[in-house]
Amino acid sequence: MANESPTVRSLARSLGLSRTTVSDALRATGRTSPETAERVRKAAEDAGYRRNPLAASLMSELRRSRGTTFRGVLAAVDLEEPGRPAHASRFHRELVQGATTRAVELGFKVEKFGVGNHGVSLHRLDAILQSRGIHGVILLPAWQTPDFSKLDWSRYAGVYTDNIIERPALHSICSDQYRSLISGLHRLVELGYRRPGMFVQAHQDERLQHRWTAAFRAFHESRRDVEMVPPLVTDTLGRASFVEWFRRYNPDVVLGHTTDAIEWMESCGARIPETHGFASLNLAMRARPCAGLDLQPREIGARGVELVIAQLQRNERGLPAWPTSTMILARWMSGPTLLPLPAEAPLGAN
């Protein structure tokens, strides 16, 4: 019969120590002498013992709660950035709400931590998570290139809820902007629009590896019945640059992130939705009712929780050897800035 995996009980028996002493040494609680702690750690390493933080947290919580329902804790970490647009806060709130709801369904809860000028440092966050036995980390989207490498990732299972993170390279879960935009453009063509235009801030496109503009151009290359309107890509979007672009190319429907464009279009004589249409690329950013893409931040948060809990259940901590990306398709939402569309439904391949 194959040897059983080493446990705290078997280590205690082989070392002639109590299970409590071995457990304290492995958890580095400071309640054992340095000599005993080192002896236990060496024996555990030689035996191939690997502590399961989820099981340990479960037993600890059960002891404290005298057998009531266990609720593990996951950390939702938000990087405070002075240059991040205000609209991002709404997207983050929706994402955390989705994560919280799904976590409760799975017997966990989510606590949000801010890192930055008004929050804690990464070093302090690391200490807090370790002291509270939190091993699951959900990183919220960052506006600039994120760097969470100062956390001791050997202790955590983590996921990034946006397209790309390299410091460190984690699994990511995000919206599928490319496929969602192409499907949305097909919807607009079905409504009779033939000159769709799009505006996007350069940084927004760059941080997504140009998925917005790539999808827009690919769509036009595949549809000979649609006239190409060069997208407006600018570092600082404002009324003047938009109006100049709109008057020059006169798109019959415009896609973009800010609903300020509706007023800018009307100042040029457009009547929405009678003569022109508008659709938002991210409805979490709208300041007034409109049609557009719901990038499903709540679903992203829920799937992020599922991914982190799955790693914890498999006792997988540390950085993945092969980081993967899970992409969530947006939902097209009808609104007063376009002709009526069918009932809300997931976008599908066209």
Strand order of the largest sheet: 7-6-8-9-10-12-13
What's the alpha carbon Rg, rounded to whole Å? 25 Å
In the CATH hierarchy, the third-tier topology of the largest domain is known as: Rossmann fold
> Do you know the CATH architecture of the largest domain?
3-Layer(aba) Sandwich
Alpha-carbon distance between the termini? 56 Å
Helix/strand/pairing category: alpha/beta
How many structural domains can be distinguished in the coordinates?
A: 3
Summarize the entry for a quick read:
With 350 residues, the protein is α/β, with parallel strands linked by helices. It contains 12 helices and 13 strands. The protein is 40% helix and 17% strand.
Explain what you see.
This protein is of the alpha/beta class and 350 residues long. The chain folds into three domains: 1-49, 434 Repressor (Amino-terminal Domain), CATH 1.10.260; 72-176 and 297-328, Response regulator (Rossmann fold, 3-Layer(aba) Sandwich), CATH 3.40.50; 177-295 and 331-346, 3-Layer(aba) Sandwich (Rossmann fold), CATH 3.40.50. It has helices at residues 8-15, 19-27, 34-47, 53-65, 87-105, 122-131, 177-190, 202-206, 211-222, 239-249, 260-267, 297-313; strands at residues 72-79, 108-115, 136-139, 157-160, 171-175, 196-201, 232-234, 253-256, 277-280, 291-294, 325-328, 331-333, 345-346. Helix 1 packs across helix 2 (19-27), helix 2 (19-27) packs across helix 3 (34-47) and helix 7 crosses helix 9. The longest helix has 19 residues, at 87-105. The N and C termini lie far apart (56 Å).
